[in-house]
């Protein structure tokens, strides 16, 4: 996955926006003001921090050692850092991004969830 593909995929979700609250180099993708993905798009290798169910986070780290690790500078229980341009299939990276988005949306107030075009 390229940085352009990562950005485009993150922005393809309903109400997703890109913000730069930490520095101009760090892209923060949010839905209704809540972070679901964070990446330094110019870094090599390309990595993205994604929210994850705690049980799935541990399983994924075991299955993809070195490519999925505890979230850098994040709550290690709920966040993973995923190497997006390495040995992981793009399909899996996209699934993990979508799962992160869905987890964040599930935690939004009901009124915000109803404004989204998600089933």
UniProtKB/TrEMBL annotation:
Classification via InterPro entries: YjbR (IPR007351), YjbR-like_sf (IPR038056), YjbR/MT2646/Rv2570-like (IPR058532)
Any coiled-coil regions, as ranges: none
SUPFAM superfamilies to which the protein is assigned, alphabetical: YjbR-like (SSF142906)
Keyword DNA-binding (UniProt): yes
Gene Ontology terms for molecular function: DNA binding
Keywords on record: DNA-binding
PANTHER family: CYTOPLASMIC PROTEIN (PTHR35145:SF1), CYTOPLASMIC PROTEIN-RELATED (PTHR35145)
Name of this chain's protein: DNA-binding protein
Native source organism of the sequence: Streptomyces swartbergensis
